[in-house]
């Protein structure tokens, strides 16, 4: 099972989940000079811990979130390694967790960006086959998929963009809220769609 949760209101999220952060996480957030980066860091950690605790009925103290050498988050529950992914932009965060399935997520604001279109054009023989900037929601479906695949595979984005698209879209779920596009990808979880749940949701 994979569960994903997102939040788009940090003024509500951060006070509500302040008790779900560790002192070490609060200290680590201060390493970021910009306030919005501190908020993103805290939002990702607190939402991920809350999601795991409420979805799988775990004690918050049993959930440890650390950082791998490549910067990706690492999740441990009761001493067992789980899979997780975190993505954030200014004012929004998306997290996912699973005890069994490797997972990657990405969240982006749907907006025209010439730099991204130029990159996509350069990879028409790869991941962006048939996609350009003429339909922005479709473009960002493919872009968030590329980012989510890269995180799940612990790879490099440019390497993903060079890859053939193959059946990657069938292993991902997309969700759109307003001008936000979200993607959750797992190579092994293809049985049922991944549910995106907005914080707070009933538990």
Mean pLDDT, to the nearest integer, reads: 91
Pairing-aware structural class of the strands and helices?
Answer: alpha+beta
Domain module count: 1
CATH architecture: Alpha-Beta Complex
> Compute the gyration radius: what is it?
17 Å
Globular, elongated, flat, extended or rod-shaped: what is the shape? globular
CATH topology: Ribosomal Protein L22, Chain A
Low-confidence stretches: none
Largest sheet: spatial strand order = 2-3-4-5-1-9
Name the beta content range. 25-35%
> Biggest sheet, in brief?
6 strands, mixed
Number of helices: 6
| Helix-strand pattern | EHHHEEEEEHHHEEE
Q: Terminal Cα separation, in Å?
A: 16 Å
CATH homology-level superfamily: 4'-phosphopantetheinyl transferase domain
What fraction, in percent, of the residue positions are helical? Answer: 25-40%
CATH first level = Alpha Beta
| Total number of beta strands | 9
Q: If you had to describe this structure to a student in words, what would you say it looks like?
A:
This protein is α+β, with helices and mostly antiparallel strands and 203 residues long. It has a single domain (3-198), classed as Ribosomal Protein L22, Chain A, CATH 3.90.470. It has six helices and nine strands; from the N terminus they run βαααβββββαααβββ. The strands form two sheets. The protein has a six-stranded mixed β-sheet with strand order 2-3-4-5-1-9, covered by helices on one side. It has a three-stranded antiparallel β-sheet with strand order 6-8-7, covered by helices on one side.
């Amino acid at each position: 099972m994979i569960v994903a949760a997102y939040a788009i209101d940090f003024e509500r999220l951060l006070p509500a989940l302040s008790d779900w952060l560790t002192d070490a996480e609060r200290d680590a957030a201060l390493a970021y000079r910009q306030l919005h980066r501190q908020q993103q860091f805290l939002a990702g950690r607190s939402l991920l811990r809350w999601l795991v605790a409420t979805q799988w009925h775990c004690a918050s103290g049993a959930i440890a979130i650390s950082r791998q050498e490549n910067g990706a988050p690492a999740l441990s529950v009761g001493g067992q390694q789980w899979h997780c992914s975190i993505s954030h932009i200014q004012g929004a965060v998306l997290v996912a967790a699973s005890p069994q399935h490797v997972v990657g997520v990405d969240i982006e604001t749907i907006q025209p960006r010439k730099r991204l279109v130029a990159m996509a054009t350069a990879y028409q023989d790869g991941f962006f086959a048939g996609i350009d900037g003429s339909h922005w929601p479709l473009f960002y479906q493919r872009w968030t998929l590329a980012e989510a695949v890269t995180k799940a595979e612990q790879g490099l984005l440019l390497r993903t963009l060079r890859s053939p698209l193959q059946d990657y879209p069938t292993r991902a779920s997309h969700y759109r809220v307003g001008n936000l596009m979200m993607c959750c990808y797992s190579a092994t979880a293809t049985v049922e769609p991944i549910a995106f749940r907005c914080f707070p949701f009933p538990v």
